[in-house]
Specification:
Order of helices and strands of chain A: EEEEEEEEEEEE
Strand content of chain A: over 45%
Strand order of the largest sheet of chain B: 1-13-3-9-10-11-6-7
Number of strands of chain A: 12
Strand order of the largest sheet of chain A: 1-12-3-8-9-10-5-6
Oligomer: heterodimer
Radius of gyration of chain B: 15 Å
Structural class of chain A: mainly beta
CATH architecture of chain B: Sandwich
Largest sheet of chain A: 8 strands, antiparallel
Distance between the termini of chain A: 15 Å
Largest sheet of chain B: 8 strands, antiparallel
Number of strands of chain B: 13
Radius of gyration of chain A: 16 Å
Distance between the termini of chain B: 7 Å
Strand content of chain B: over 45%
Helix content of chain B: under 10%
Number of domains of chain B: 1
Order of helices and strands of chain B: EEEEEEEEEEEEE
CATH topology of chain A: Jelly Rolls
Largest interface: A-B, 36 and 36 residues
Number of domains of chain A: 1
Chain lengths: ~180, ~170
Amino acid sequence: MSNLRLINETEVTSSVSSVDITDVFSADFDIYKITADNIIQASGSSVSSLNLKFINSSGSIISTDYDYAYLQLRSDASFVEVKSTSGTNLDQALGQVDDNLISNGAVLYIFNPFNSSSYTFITNQASGSSGSSKRFLKGIGVLHQTNSITGINISVSSSNITEGKIRIFGLRVDS
Amino acid sequence: MAGKLVQVATETVTSAVASVTLTGIDSDDVYMLAITELATNTDNSSYGIRPTVSGTGDSTADKDVAKKLLKASGTFEDRALTNQNWMEIFYLLGTGSSSQEKGNGIFYLYNFNNASEYSFITMETAMLRATGVLHSANGGAVETQAQSCDGVQIIGNANIEAGTFTLYRQVGN
């Protein structure tokens, strides 16, 4: 059996502005891998960021205390450094989407979300687009709270998404 | 092909040690090292990986590193190193006041078993520096010596106070 265990698979099949995936982090794992693929917007949509927030064990979406940094790699322009020490979310944790022509994909690792004695760290990389510009990013983030985190909230900064698949895996350590 | 990750070795540190060694690389598959909550007792400490030969970390100064340092505050940096005696993975790790200055990362290991090839790694990390600033390294490193390596030694210029270190093998169905 693989030490990488599928915990949750969520598929977007209708127009939504956010997706909550709850009760996926537990004491069974310290590291989680999240993949997102084929995320698509409705036709005529404006470019939107796919942002991430954590959901605590009380079911509340956390909207403070995020730090992040990412390098946005653009196919048609200079690369851009983006950073914050006072974020209300993990900006573009799953990249950007624009219109219905090009889908988006992302891979994230989440470290120690459930541990109520530790901050929750992420590393992330994503591909996507803004108009005809193809955009990629490599980034990091931290929620500097010691809450026990049990889920994620993915929100779209403007136009809704209509399709997409998000998988969450736990990386098992057998002592 | 679905593929899977199979655990090869793991060690959890709960009291200070100078290094951690994980062995068991015995095939030409890709291996993955996962590190969670590596903690130091000395501000501005750096840690790295040495490929092991017959279970012993190779300290030869033949490791080259290139990585982008992302920071939540301050300008991102290019960090390029040659002829190092470890492949630096965490740079300027702190102890800080919050007790949260810990290093986390995922590392892929290539060609370690192959005696005819250099051993390469790629890295993605997230940590808090001694200043408390979120900081990472995205990049890679190589040992510029063709030899068969059977594992990794994680070592730094200060003790490892805590952390969990796990080596996986990526295999097909």
